[in-house]
Design brief:
globular; three-stranded mixed beta sheet; 17 helices
Length: about 350
């Protein structure tokens, strides 16, 4: 499904089937592809089929699938189970996810929202707080991926009537929409929907537009314009196997500088949702074979990058402040390719 396809025009069952077929072609990406397939099955109303996909991912009898984030899969399974009356099993899985203390914010958000949607507000608050305490204690600036954790905690605390604390204040500063979090999360908002006062309805429409804008921004992030990055070892292997590509990559240092310069130029031109996607020689060769083309053809490189980005493998550029540089050096981006002179120095 293209990211600009209206949701009402999507055949979710067909899209799920397509993603399952794609997972068979790209087993290294099976986790991401099957999770998307399961989401489409949930949207189609076939929740039992979605559970089967989650079980398939979690099954140790699937050697072709090596899970990067089993806690995420379990959290999604629990949320789905609860929606079709498997509450006891869902609660047990949620307890297991919390006990595992995942270092990724997504499982925390999913299980907390599952509790919240079933009016388990105290448990949801505890879960959001556990995740925030684990992932954000002594962190100078919350990574983008942790923002939903803070926003969800803020929302539940408003519904519980709890006073603002330091993390609520932090959530307020991270929120950039024109309508404040306090307004968005006001428990009395729903009352305005029954009002006959046009001003009340206009205010609610404004809030909903702000929420929709935030959702669209979040949904747009997995589909960046991505630059292809070959790690040093992969680039050396690529040039050794296909010397014709040496003109594209005179040196590893120039390759990195070219990526950073291109991204900055795109950003300056107003291009949104930029990213970097790492390539590997085996997957590039497999892609070339699927296209009936030679890996030595330079014209294939941007197509390969686009395909990897569409499979959700790109990382957003520029990295969050304090995050590691996209080049894999392990240094903070601001001290590596994020410096003003980094591109010029390597040209």
């Amino acid at each position: 499904m293209r990211p600009d396809t209206p949701a009402e025009n999507v055949d979710h069952a067909a899209e799920a089937a397509r993603l399952e077929r794609t997972a068979g072609l790209y087993p290294e990406d099976a986790e991401a592809l099957l999770l998307r397939a399961a989401a489409h099955l949930e949207l189609s109303g076939d929740r039992p089929a979605a559970t089967k996909l989650y079980d398939r991912l979690l099954s140790s009898g699937t050697p072709s699938v090596s899970l990067d984030n089993p806690s995420l899969v379990r959290a999604l399974k629990a949320s789905n189970l609860w929606e079709y009356d498997h509450e006891a099993e869902a609660r047990a899985i949620i307890d297991g996810v919390r006990a595992a203390s995942p270092r990724d914010p997504a499982p925390w958000v999913i299980v907390a929202e599952a509790l919240e949607s079933h009016d388990e507000l105290e448990a949801a608050h505890e879960t959001f707080t556990e995740g925030a305490r684990l992932l954000l204690t002594d962190v100078p600036e919350p990574p983008y991926s942790t923002h939903p954790l803070l926003y969800g905690r803020h929302r539940v605390r408003r519904m519980l009537g709890l006073p603002h604390d330091e993390w609520d204040a932090l959530a307020d500063t991270l929120h950039t929409m024109p309508v404040s979090l306090d307004e968005l999360h006001d428990p009395k908002r729903v009352w305005s929907l029954g009002s006959e006062d046009p001003a009340d309805l206009e205010a609610e429409i404004s809030r909903l537009r702000a929420e929709l804008g935030a959702y669209r921004e979040a949904l747009s992030r997995p589909f960046p314009v991505a630059m292809l990055h070959w790690p040093a070892g992969e680039l050396a292997e690529l040039i050794e196997a296909y010397p014709a590509l040496s003109s594209e990559y005179p040196s590893y240092e120039e390759h990195l500088a070219t990526i950073e310069a291109a991204l900055r130029e795109l950003a300056a031109s107003g291009t949104p949702n930029l990213g970097v996607v790492p390539g590997t020689v085996p997957s590039y060769e497999a892609f070339a074979a699927s296209e009936g083309a030679s890996p030595a053809d330079p014209a294939l490189l941007p197509q390969y990058a686009t395909t990897l980005a569409a499979r959700g493998l790109a990382v957003a550029w520029p990295p969050q402040r304090g995050a590691a540089c996209w080049c894999g050096s392990g240094r903070p981006y601001g001290e590596c390719h994020g410096t003003e002179g980094a591109v010029a120095a390597n040209r």
